[in-house]
């Protein structure tokens, strides 16, 4: 059996083709009614399966034209549609001479069995005795059908639009509500930060101050162990104060409005490098900064990122002496333009890389490389606020590279 499949969906045609070819049929395809009419005249198929809604010439026009040809009108014609699925469409299809009106989607085996059942059954009226519609009759009925379908689609679109408007209103209400809650949470965070910076610092200052006073004024009455305990107490108080300051700094960079503008990272990197060189003029570090690294972001915060990354590179290259090298260059990260800071310092094992961006996580002892352990956490927080990403690659003893995109 030769089957002509007419459908503007390539996937639907393919599914029907594979299904009927598997059952031993020969299948030819057309993407619209006009091409289907040409193929029907050339191939003389034993069955036509056609979609309704198609460009150039739809299924109803295709069937109407088929019935004008004496040698084609007897070919069984079956509609298989997902859009025109109402009773009016089915009635018109039957009136035009279609054998059946099937609704998509059907399982391949189900479609094959249904087509077989329809072909085995006697048509209600022999095709050769059924006269084709006059042109004006077809146009009148076809226009009414299309107009009805358009009215139905307009109603559906109108209902969908009303639903979307209601949903949009609900979303706006929720956004206002969540924004209000966020603003309240930020106010509470500000109050908490104020409490930390003032209320908690005061007892820590007392603890550190009195510990120092005990060491200085009562040293003669304390043995070596007592002095050591007091010194540890004083250093712990200083360390806790430093950690509080670091948390406040992290909080400060996590809030506030981003002021986005065009930022020259090359210029900022050179500025940071110059500040580091002035802070330790005895060190000889080679800086190589690429030109033309432009991004859009908050210049103040992006400078903080470079201060943290270049500052780390400066610190961890100290064991290299005069061979210390820090490079800042343009690259890519996940297909996005990015900036990288690379050094030839002490590096680290990549198995510990995830810890670097958490507050107070350190891979080197404090007496080797002093620091608060908060810099990279601040850098990542700022980059995340910009909608960006930061990654690192390193090798123990061979330096590290930090790459970020915003």
TrEMBL record:
Positions carrying 4-aspartylphosphate: 51
The protein's name: histidine kinase
Coiled coil region boundaries: 147-188
Molecular function via GO: kinase activity
Recorded superkingdom: Bacteria
Residue ranges of every copy of the Response regulatory domain listed in the record: 2-119
Lineage: Bacteria, Pseudomonadati, Thermodesulfobacteriota, Desulfuromonadia, Geobacterales
UniProt enzyme class: transferase
Gene3D superfamilies: 1.10.287.130, 3.40.50.2300, Histidine kinase-like ATPase, C-terminal domain
EC number of the protein: 2.7.13.3
Keywords of the record: Coiled coil, Kinase, Phosphoprotein, Transferase
Catalyzed reactions: ATP + protein L-histidine = ADP + protein N-phospho-L-histidine
Any Pfam family the entry gives: HisKA
InterPro entries: BphY/WalK/GraS-like, CheY-like_superfamily, HATPase_C_sf, HATPase_dom, His_kinase_dom, HisK_dim/P_dom, HisK_dim/P_sf, Sig_transdc_His_kin-like_C
Domain Histidine kinase: from-to ranges: 195-406
């Amino acid at each position: 059996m030769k089957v002509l499949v007419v459908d503007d969906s390539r996937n639907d045609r393919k599914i029907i083709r594979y299904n009927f070819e598997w059952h031993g049929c020969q299948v030819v395809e057309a993407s619209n009614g006009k091409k289907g009419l040409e193929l029907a005249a050339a191939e003389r198929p034993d069955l036509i399966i056609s979609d309704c809604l198609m460009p150039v010439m739809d299924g109803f026009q295709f069937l109407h034209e088929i019935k004008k040809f004496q040698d084609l009108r007897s070919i069984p014609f079956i509609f298989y549609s997902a859009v025109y699925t109402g009773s009016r469409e089915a009635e018109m299809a039957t009136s035009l001479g279609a054998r059946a009106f099937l609704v998509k989607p059907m399982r391949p085996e189900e479609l094959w069995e249904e087509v077989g059942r329809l072909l085995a059954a006697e048509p209600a009226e022999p095709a050769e005795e059924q006269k084709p519609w006059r042109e004006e009759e077809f146009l009148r009925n076809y226009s009414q059908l299309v107009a009805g379908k358009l009215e139905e689609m307009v109603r559906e679109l109108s209902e969908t639009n009303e639903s979307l408007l209601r949903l949009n209103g609900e979303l706006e209400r929720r956004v206002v509500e969540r924004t209000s809650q966020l603003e309240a949470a930020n106010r509470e965070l500000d109050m908490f930060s104020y409490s930390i910076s003032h209320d908690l610092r005061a007892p820590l200052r007392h603890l550190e101050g009195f510990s120092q006073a005990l060491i200085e004024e009562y040293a003669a009455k304390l043995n070596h162990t007592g002095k050591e305990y007091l010194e540890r107490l004083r250093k712990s108080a200083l360390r806790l104060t430093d950690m509080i300051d670091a948390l406040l700094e992290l909080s400060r960079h996590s809030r506030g409005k981003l002021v986005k503008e065009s930022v020259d990272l090359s210029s900022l990197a050179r500025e940071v490098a110059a500040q580091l060189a002035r802070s330790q003029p005895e060190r000889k570090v080679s800086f190589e900064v690429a030109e033309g690294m432009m991004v859009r972001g908050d210049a103040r915060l992006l400078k903080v990122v470079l201060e943290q990354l270049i500052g780390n590179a400066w610190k961890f290259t100290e064991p290299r002496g005069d061979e210390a090298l820090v490079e800042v260059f343009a690259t890519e990260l996940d297909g996005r333009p990015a900036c990288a800071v690379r050094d030839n310092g002490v590096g680290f094992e990549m198995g510990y890389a995830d810890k670097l961006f958490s507050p107070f996580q350190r891979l080197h002892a404090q007496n080797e490389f002093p620091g608060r352990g908060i810099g990279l956490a601040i850098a990542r927080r700022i980059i995340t606020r910009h909608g960006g990403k930061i990654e690192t690659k390193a090798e123990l003893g061979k330096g590290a590279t930090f790459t970020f995109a915003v």
